[in-house]
Every structure is written in structure tokens, then in C-alpha cells.
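Take a specimen:
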Amino acid sequence: MKNMAIRRKNAFDSEITIDLTGSDGNVFVLMGRAMQYAKQLELDGDEIINEMQSSDYENAVQVFDKYFGSFVTLLR
């Protein structure tokens, strides 16, 4: 019989990547993901979205990275 192990979910690094050059790089897709992740992390999604919308696309990407860069990799 094969030995089995039960591990905590967070023991696995499930890297999430978003390709900014593809359709996932659309600012509206990024804002949707930001709301989803904010809800999961119990952050104020409206505040994050307002900050993302406060300037141009590059700002939106930087704000997204500020809040979610610890577990989401953005690809250019």
C-alpha cells in the first residue's frame, strides 16, 4: 500500500500568472480579478478599484501588483 500524506493547502505554491499581452491583460479583466482576490482576502475591493482607476493603464497594473503581487505573477 502506498503511503499517503495530507498536506495543508497553503503548503503548495500555486503560482497564478496573468499574461498582460493577452486578453487577460485587459484593464477590465484585471479589475475583475482584483475584486475577486480582494473578496477572498477580505480587502476593500472598491478602494482598490478606485485606486486602479485613478490614472492610466500602467497605474492600474502597478496597483494590482501592489495588492496581489505576492501570489500573482504578471507577464509582459
